[in-house]
Each structure stands twice: as structure tokens, then as C-alpha cells.
Amino acid sequence: MQAAVADGGKRISVHLADQDHRILAVALSHVAGAAPGGDDVLAELAALRSVVSCGSDLAPDGRRVWALLDVAPR
What does residue 40 show for φ and ψ, rounded to 5 degrees? Predict the structure, then answer.
């Protein structure tokens, strides 16, 4: 969310989905032409114990930041 908000848009979208019994969370900034970056956010996400993988990309409709979370009880 932090990277999507930093793009300076007036709205963001958050999408949740089930992927292989894990939660896929995606935040979209809706700012076309957003500048590359946000690697610090990815490092923070990757450090979380529940994050299996994460990433970011730029699309015509804005920046997408995603994380795949394993929320199985330990």
C-alpha cells in the first residue's frame, strides 16, 4: 500500500485472491506512468515471516505491488 500511495494518485485498489491455499494480496496505484522504484517496500515485505514471495511491476494502469502470504497455523 505504501508504494501505491507514494505514486500520488487519488485512489488505490486492493485485491485479495486464493492461490494454492495461500493469500495473494495486490495493491494497484491507478497512476499511469509511475516512476520505477519501491525496492525498499519489497525488502520490508520479504522480511515478514508470512510472505512466501512478493514483487512489483508497472502497467499502463499503474504500479502493482503483490505479496503471496502463507497464513497456515504454525
Answer: -65, -35
From CA 32, how far away is CA 54, in angstroms rounded?
21
| 8 within some domain | yes
Residue in the structure block whose three cell numbers are 486464493: 18
User: Within a domain: residue 74?
Assistant: no
Q: Dig out the grid coordinates for 18 from the structure.
A: 486464493
pLDDT at 60: 84
Would the pTM of this model clear 0.85, i.e. be above it?
Answer: no
Q: Which domain holds residue 17?
A: 2-69
Please name the helix (run of DSSP H) or strand (run of DSSP E) that holds residue 44, with its range, or none: helix 39-46
Closest CA to 42 of 32, 27, 30: 27
- No. of helices (H) and no. of strands (E), the chain: 2, 4
